Amino acid sequence: WGTAVPFAGVFALIAGLVWMMIGKQTIVPRLHATEVYKSPNTCKWSMSAAAGTVPVRGREIDRYVPMLESKRAAHKELTEQMADPDIFSDPSRYQKVAKQAADLGETVSAYERFLEIEEELEEINSMLKDAEGDPEMTDYAEAEGKTLKEEMDGIEEKLTILLLPKDPMDEKDIMLEIRAGTGGDEATLWASDLMRMYERYAALKGWKLNYTSVSNADAGGYKEVVAQITGENVYSCLKWEAGVHRVQRVPATETQGRVHTSTASVAVMPEVDEVDVQIDMNDVTVTTARSGGAGGQNVNKVETAIDLMHKPTGIRIFCTEERTQGRNRERAFAILRAKLFEMEREKQMAEISSKRKAQIGSGARSEKIRTYNYKDSRVSDHRIKVNYDLTTFLNGGCEAAITDLINDDQQMMLQELAENSQA
C-alpha cells in the first residue's frame, strides 16, 4: 500500500489555491462545502499496512479547534436559552436567540461529525491491530478507513469555509444604479446594454427587477437608471459588479469603422431599513412634478413624480416610475437610504488592506473592473485577470465571473484566517 501520508489539511488547501492563482488563464474551481480541492502537491490518502494505522487528524486543523469549540459552547448555551420560559414567552428575544443558534448550527453539526469520524478512525486502527494475519478483516478495515478519511477531508474544507467571516449584507435586496460615463451618446447606449445584461441575469436567477428611476438619453440609451432587484442573496452575487465597465466597439453611427471606448459606472447598494439609516427631514427637500409616459391620464395630469434633494450630500433623486405620488416618494427615500448607507460602506472599504484591494478590488464606483471588447468577442475582468465570452456575458451569463470573484475572495480570507490563527 505504500507509506502513510499525513492528512492534507487546511495548509495544503490554501497552498493549492494560491498556486492556481499564479499565471492562471482559466476559471478557478469554486470551493464547495462537500468537495476537497486537490492541489498538485497534495497526495491522495493512503494507509500503511506496515504501520497498521489510519491517519486521524492533520496538524493544520488543530489551529481551528479553539474557535470551533467556542462556537460549539455558544450554540449549546443558545439552545438552552431557547428552552428558557422567560425567553420563549418573549417573541422578539426568542427570534433573536433562535437566529443566532441557527447561524451556528451548520458549523457545529459539521464539527461534531468531524469528531465522530475521529473516534471511528481510532476504532478502525484498533481493528487493524487485532486483524493481523486476517486478510479479509484487514481489507474491510482499510476500506472503511479510506471512506471515513475521504468524508473527513470534505468536512475539514467545509469547516474552513464556514469559519470565514460573512458579509451581513449578503442576503439583502439591492438598488442597482448605472450611469453613463465617458463616450457621449455611445456611453448612454452602453449603459442600457449593461442594464439589459443584468435584467437577463436576474431572470436566470429567478429574481424580480423593477425600474425605480430612469433618465433617458436622446440617442435611446440611459443617462442614468436605477432598478430594485429582489430575491435570494441578491447582494452576495451582484456586489462584485460595482465599478467602471469599459466597452470597446464600433458605434452604429461610426462611418469609418473606428473603434471607440466608452464607459458606464455601476453602483450596487443593499436595501436598508429606516432603523439602519436615520434621515433628518430638515436635510431633505421634496417637490412634486408631473410624470410622463405610460400609466394613463393620471400620471400626465396629476403630480405623481417626486424630486428629492438631500442637502448635506447633494444627492438628488427623481422618481417617476410608480403611478402614485406616495409610491414614488417611498421609492425615492428607499434609494436615498441605500445611497447614504453605501457611502458609509465605502469609507469602511477604504480601510481594507492594500493587499486585499489589489486582489479583489475596492468595489468603489471609480474602479475600472472590466473591459468588453467586441472585436475579439471577449470580456476581461481586471481584478482576477480572467477572460470570458462576450456573447454569453451580455446574455446574462455572468455567473462564471461572479463565481471566480467569490472564489478569489475566499482564498484571501482563508489566508487571513490561517495567519490569524497562528498569531
Q: Could you please describe the fold and organization of this structure?
A:
By secondary structure, the protein is of the alpha+beta class. The chain has helices spanning 10-21, 65-82, 85-88, 91-130, 135-162, 185-205, 234-238, 297-301, 325-349, 354-360, 390-394, 399-422; strands at 174-180, 208-216, 222-230, 243-249, 260-270, 284-289, 305-310, 315-319, 368-373, 378-381, 386-389. The longest helix has 40 residues, at 91-130. The radius of gyration is 27 Å and the shape is flat. The two termini are 38 Å apart.
Tally of DSSP helical segments: 12
Mean pLDDT: 78
Q: What is the helix/strand order?
A: HHHHHEHEEHEEEHEEHHEEEHH
Low-pLDDT ranges: 1-59, 293-300, 352-364
How many strand segments?
A: 11
Helix content: 40-55%
Task: Note the main sheet.
Answer: 8 strands, mixed
Topology:
Layout: H1 10-21, H2 65-82, H3 85-88, H4 91-130, H5 135-162, E1 174-180, H6 185-205, E2 208-216, E3 222-230, H7 234-238, E4 243-249, E5 260-270, E6 284-289, H8 297-301, E7 305-310, E8 315-319, H9 325-349, H10 354-360, E9 368-373, E10 378-381, E11 386-389, H11 390-394, H12 399-422
Parallel strand pairs: 4-9
Antiparallel strand pairs: 1-3, 1-5, 2-3, 4-5, 6-7, 7-8, 9-10, 10-11
